[in-house]
Each structure stands twice: as structure tokens, then as C-alpha cells.
Amino acid sequence: MKKKFRIAAASNVLIPIYYLLNEKGFTLNRTDRGWAAENEEAKFIAEDLMLLAGLIYLWEHKGDDWKVDDEKIDAFWEKYF
């Protein structure tokens, strides 16, 4: 049986994320708030590169309509907190 691939959020993924976002056409810059990534369509700001990648993933898959309704928010809080 093949072992399941595993990766963890750690400092060794930051530089690969930087290069991946750059290859996807984002201009990346350090800011007073952490990092910013920008392309012709959008600008993203996050404390670190992993969070930045998550925001971009969310936008790429959900677009401007990324929010969820109150029912889903309540279900999430009830399940996990």
C-alpha cells in the first residue's frame, strides 16, 4: 500500500509558495502588514505567504462571491467550537 502524501504548514513551504505565486503571474512584495500579491485582476494582503496562498486559492475558486451565508457560518462554529 502506497503511503499517503503528507505536507505540513512549516517554514520550509514558504519559499516554494513564493515562487509558485510568482509563476502564476502575481507580483509579490513585503508590506508593513506582511505580504501582498497583485495581478491585473486583484490584490491580496496577508500576514504570511501561506495565508496569502489561501486567499488566492479562495478567490481563484470562488471569485468575488467568496462569502458564505450565516447558516454555514453558524454550522461551522457549532461543529468546531
Description:
With 81 residues, this protein is of the alpha+beta class. The chain has one domain. Helices cover 43% and strands 17% of the residues. The protein is built from three helices and three strands; from the N terminus they run αβββαα. It has helices at residues 14-23, 49-62, 70-80, and strands spanning 27-31, 34-38, 43-46. It has a three-stranded antiparallel β-sheet with strand order 1-2-3, covered by helices on one side. A hairpin with a 4-residue loop joins strand 2 and strand 3. The longest helix has 14 residues, at 49-62. It is globular and about 35 Å long. The mean pLDDT is 97.
The global form is globular
Structural class, judged by helices and strands? alpha+beta
SSE order, one letter for each helix or strand: HEEEHH
Main beta sheet strand tally, sense and closure: 3 strands, antiparallel
Radius of gyration from the alpha-carbon trace, in angstroms: 16 Å
What is the number of domains? Answer: 1
The proportion of residues in beta strands is 15-25%
What would you call the quaternary organization? single chain
Tally of contiguous helical segments: 3
The number of strands is 3
Residue windows where pLDDT falls under 50 for at least 5 positions:
none
Report helical residue fraction: 40-55%
